[in-house]
Amino acid sequence: MTQVAEARNQVIRLLREAHSVELHRIAELRDAAGAASGAYRERLEAHVGDERRHADRLQARLDQVGGAPGLVEAGLGVVTGLVAMGVRLARRPLEAIE
User: Alpha-carbon distance 74 to 68, whole Å?
Assistant: First the structure.
């Protein structure tokens, strides 16, 4: 493999990692916003928007360099999102009791 190809693969790996972190942060911030109220909730919701824009820019760059996720990565992303959604929904009845 040439140095250019190795560098490209490294960039793609780092962009995918950064994109994954952004998506994880979005889920965490949404959870926190759901439990917050008032100005703090508004700030968290604004931050979710910031993180979404970061994730969108990272995805655009990945698309540009040909680093779209493979089938396995895409499947893991879907499963991770569904699990996170299930956890958030399961917490709601418990939060109502508190």
Answer: 9
Per-residue pLDDT tens, the chain, 98 aa: give them. Answer: 799 989 999 999 999 999 999 999 999 999 999 999 999 999 999 999 999 999 999 999 999 998 876 555 656 666 666 666 676 667 666 655 65
Q: Which two tokens stand for residue 79?
A: 């499963």
Q: Which residue has the tokens 């990945």?
A: 62
Specify burial of residue 47 (Cβ count, 10 A radius: 0-12, 13-18, 19+): middle
Does the model's pTM come out above 0.85?
Answer: no
- 26, burial (CB in 10 Å: exposed 0-12, middle 13-18, buried 19+): buried
Please, are residues 58 and 18 in contact by the beta-carbon 8 Å criterion?
yes
Among residues 1, 2, 5, which one has the least CA distance to residue 66?
5
Say if residues 12 and 65 touch (Cβ distance below 8 Å). yes
